[in-house]
Amino acid sequence: MNERERQSDPVLRYAVEAGPPPRVRFSGRMDAYSTGPVWQPVLDEFRRLSGAPELVLDLGEVEYCDGAGAALLYSVERETAERGGTLRFEGMTRAIAGYLKPYRDADAARPARGAGVTPWPQRLRRGVIAVGFEIHEQVAFIGEVSLALVRGLARPGQVRWGDMLRVAEAAGYQALPIVSLIAFLLGVILAFQSAVAMGQFGAQIFVADLVAISLFRELGPLMMAILLAGRSGAAFAAEIGTMKVNEEVSALTTMGLDPVRFLVVPKILAGILVAPLLTLYANLIGLIGAALVMRGFGIPMVTFFNQVSGAVDFGDLGSGLFKACVFGFLVASVGCLRGLQTGTGAAAVGRSTTSAVVSAITLIVVADGLFAVLFYHLGI
Amino acid sequence: MGFGAMIIMERLDFVVRRGEIFVILGGSGSGKSTLLKHMIGLYRPLAGRVLIDGADVTTAEGAEREDILREIGVTYQMGALFGSMSLLENVRLPLEVHTRLPPAAMNRIALARLQMVGLAEYSDFMPAEISGGMQKRAAIARAMVLDPKVLFLDEPSAGLDPITSAELDQLVRRLSSSLGMTMVVVTHELPSIFTIADRVIMLDKESRSIIAEGDPRVLRDSSEHPWVRRFLRRAETEDLPA
Fold first, then answer.
1. Which of A41, A115, B205, B215 could form a disulfide with B30 if both were Cys (CB 3.0 to 4.6 A apart)?
2. Which of A5, A43, A103, A349 should be substituted to probe chain B, the one whose Cβ sees the most B Cβ atoms within 10 Å?
3. Is the ipTM of this complex over 0.85?
4. Which tens digits make up the pLDDT trace of A120-160?
5. CATH number 3.40.50.300 is the correct assignment for the domain at B1-71+148-242
6. Omega of the bond prior to B156 within 30 degrees of 0, cis?
7. Architecture of domain A12-108 in CATH?
8. Nearest chain B Cα distance for residue A38, angstroms
9. How is chain B split into domains, by residue range?
């Protein structure tokens, strides 16, 4: 019975005899491929016959039966029992009985973590504890990073500058194509949208002021930070997360190397370094895009850039670059933190990466709002 | 068998008999797992054929290949459970792909398979939440959910403690006797070899061929190759006691 012949079209047939007692006779093969098409009709047939006190299931003509076939037999057995009837098997071999046993046993199994819905006070308690742990971890991580950065500044020889430059190249230089594209399109769109509206008042020349101030103070750093979060923050989380899953982080610790100093500090320094540089580059490309659009509206490039130089001062540029530094720090540190918090398995790396991007963008927006208030009060 | 110009093994000629537990042995780097991957059609041999029930795995394409793959189940060294799915979903996946069973039936079959490996209570757990030994048992449940003719197990006991390893051996033995399934196992865990193997072949890295074939107990006591006797006695030299 255990040996299965190769069949291109395995078929399970059943026939019903009225009785009494009603008898259902199976013939052919009962495997995962042949039971599928007859599963529901067989169950319906047994429901129809469930009025009889006893039913007979004749397996004498079954050529082959495996686990899937036994699953059908067990379903029929349960269906009959639930409706108060008795099912008697005829022609049951030892092999079929062996396959049937795990189904009966599995029904008795109870979920290891308990079944049902957890009461809401318990869920609330767990939620509060989880948030508490999360806050504790983040504060501890900020402390560790700050300490490592201070130590790095005090003893620059301890910082892994080679790693820092490698990360800076990946996060900065290799990001130039995408930053160019987005910044150029942003400049073009800003200029075009505002030129049409301001043209109605004959104020098209002030498009240069609008684009320059928007880019330098707000859009340049913000757009660059979001790009950095999606591109490099995710990469940091995935890299460190994979290292965690492969126990490379544990290996560093047991070798006496602090993972924060070894893995995190170079990435954070790279983030702080490349973020303002990318912002500066994005500002320039955005202005070029806007200048090209304004040329189409009859404003020469020289006039456009003269207007820009009069509209923005060092405070506008400096505030934007300072914000970019902070955003770079936030993106890199959140990416590294999520990487170090990775659990086990491939799915955990995916969760860390997603969490790194979402947390970084949230922090960027919150920090940007705080900067807006701060700069207003400082008069910058 | 090999990669490009590098030949790992040659003149490999052996038969796995229906219903037996067949173990592939060899030193580290001798090509045991590579041979297993050739037998399941993941790698193509440089020359020769691999026949499973008369069908050649090496040349089969399309529907013919799918037919062969339906007849085999494979577990990998690290379990290879899908981390984003619960144990029940992992075991149910082959049923979803290959059969037209109703969802409730698939769940019932998958749960019974987990019950056979002692994991029915953990059906809603994710692979990351259970131990390495449990992951390997769940991988066996997934591999046999379609009741394959042949089950291939790549180092099922590797990295497990002796008790878990012994439990896994008993599971393999029990499944083989209760389901009559043919099993091909790659391992170099001596206790496992003597517990589960009906027959073994031993690969030799230097001669790049099979140097011994037969019952492991007989080979341990009377193989003509000293290296085979030493391997099966776990002895550094021939004079050390067994």
1. B205
2. A103
3. no
4. 888 888 889 888 888 888 888 888 888 888 888 888 887 88
5. yes
6. no
7. 2-Layer Sandwich (3.30)
8. 9
9. 1-71+148-242, 82-147
